[in-house]
Design brief:
Helices cover 66% and strands 0% of the residues. It is mainly α. It is elongated, with a radius of gyration of 19 Å. Helix 6 crosses helix 7.
Length: 190
C-alpha cells in the first residue's frame, strides 16, 4: 500500500495534498522531488499529479507559492505590535527565522527558479506588509526604505543559510532595530 505522510490529511483536496507532500519531501532533504515520489507520498497513482500540474516545474512553483503564503502569515503574526518600529523589527526576525526553519523552501522561493516563475503580485504579501510599516515610519522615503529593509533581512537570512552568519538572535535584532530607528530618525529630520 502506498505510504502517505501522517501530517497530511487524506481528505484534503488532491491539489493541496500534492503540494503538501512535495513540501514535506523538500523539507526532509530529498535529493530529487519528482512527481512520482510526490504521488507515492500522497498515496495516489503516478499519473494523478498530472491532472493538477503540467509538470514538475508547475508543482514546485505551487510549493514556492505556499512558501510565500507561509512567510506572509509569519510576518502578520510578528506584526502584532503597537509600535511601528518594533513591529518592523519583529517582521525581520520572522523572515530570518522562516529561512532558518525552512532552508530548502526558502531557496526554492528565491534562488532555485520556481519562485522566480510566479507572478510578482502572488508573492509580495509579506513585502507589502513590511512596506506599509516602512511607509508609516518614513512616509517621504517609503520606497527606498522598504528596499533597504528587505535588503537587510534577505541578506541576513541568506548569510545565515550559507553558514556565514552564526545564529545570534540578539545581534540580528539589534541590526533590525537599528534599521527601524534609522528610518524613524530620518523621517523626523525632514
Amino acid at each position: 500500500m502506498p505510504r502517505t505522510d501522517a501530517a497530511i490529511p487524506p481528505e484534503a483536496p488532491l491539489h493541496d495534498r500534492l503540494v503538501d507532500c512535495a513540501l514535506a519531501l523538500l523539507e526532509r532533504g530529498e535529493a530529487e522531488v519528482s512527481l512520482r515520489a510526490v504521488a507515492r507520498a500522497a498515496g495516489v497513482s503516478a499519473m494523478a499529479p498530472y491532472r493538477h500540474f503540467h509538470d514538475k516545474s508547475a508543482l514546485m512553483a505551487a510549493v514556492a507559492l505556499r512558501g510565500f503564503a507561509m512567510m506572509e502569515a509569519n510576518a502578520r503574526a510578528a506584526d502584532q505590535k503597537d509600535d511601528a518600529a518594533a513591529a518592523l523589527a519583529a517582521q525581520g526576525e520572522a523572515y530570518i527565522a522562516f529561512a532558518r526553519a525552512h532552508p530548502a523552501l526558502f531557496r526554492l522561493m528565491f534562488a532555485d527558479g520556481a519562485g522566480m516563475t510566479l507572478p510578482p503580485d502572488q508573492c509580495k504579501g509579506g513585502y507589502a506588509l513590511m512596506a506599509r510599516r516602512v511607509a508609516h515610519l518614513a512616509p517621504d522615503r517609503a520606497e527606498a526604505g522598504a528596499l533597504a529593509c528587505w535588503g537587510l533581512v534577505h541578506g541576513l537570512a541568506t548569510l545565515a543559510l550559507d553558514g556565514r552568519l552564526p545564529p545570534d538572535p540578539a545581534a540580528e535584532r539589534a541590526a533590525l532595530e537599528l534599521m527601524a530607528r534609522a528610518l524613524t530618525t530620518r523621517a523626523r529630520e525632514r
